[in-house]
Amino acid sequence: MEDSTDSIVNKVYEFRVLKKMSQSDLAKAVGVSKQTIFVMEKNNYSPSLLLAYRIANFFGVPVEEIFAYTKGGHQND
Quick one: pLDDT band at residue 49, thresholds 50, 70, 90? Predict the structure, then answer.
């Protein structure tokens, strides 16, 4: 059962900026809207597992390097 304080946090913004890409460019590369990237970067949207893997694959890193599960506001290492 999911606790309401559980969430997925991400480093999409950091990876995108390091690659000098716009939100629109990343959105096109992974097949979503710019708005999806925007809300994901604000941690207001948890992507599907498929989208998380698409983003990680695009940046060439393991999915855990960009996305992390947090329980009760603390990262679950």
Answer: very high
Residue 2 backbone class (left: φ over 0; alpha: ψ -120 to 50; beta: rest)? beta
pTM of the predicted model as reported, rounded to 2 decimal places: 0.84
d(CA 36, CA 10): 13
Q: Is residue 41 part of a domain?
A: yes
Taken in order 57, 59, 60, 65, is the CA torsion positive or negative?
negative
Q: Could you tell me the CATH number of the domain that includes residue 46?
A: 1.10.260.40
- High-pLDDT (> 90) share of the chain, %: 79
Determine, yes or no, domain membership for 26. Answer: yes
The rounded distance, in Å, linking the Cα atoms of 54 and 71 is 24
User: In the chain, how many domains are there?
Assistant: 1
- Cβ-proximal residues to 25 (8 Å cutoff; 6+ apart), any chain: none
